[in-house]
Amino acid sequence: MSMSTFIIRGKIKPYVRMTQRSKWTSPQAREYLASKAAVGMQLRHQMNQSGAGMLPGQTPLSVHITIWEAGGFHNKDLDNQVKAIVDAAQGIVFPDDRWIDQITAERKRGEGYATEMRIDTL
Question: Would you tell me the crossing angle of helices 27-50 and 78-89 to the nearest 10 degrees?
């Protein structure tokens, strides 16, 4: 079993539903896509710094996500926050999120905004 841990700084826009058209016209969709790209850049930078390559394809994975947020955090769905993080990691940390067999997530009150994502192979 191998493990990788990533720290993502800043707010993460939860996943929003979108169509091909609305991804360019909906402000919510544009915010989500910009957040996804920013998270992806942080993950790519951490992958490059560690010298680790992408996790091998077709490998069952376990993901644990801890989200620290300042203020009230019950105004967003935890599952949409998790989807945003996993979507940003796909193609950078692992090739395909269909191989995630186990996900745990928790939110905690913090002084700022940060997310820890721990990925284990099963």
Answer: 50
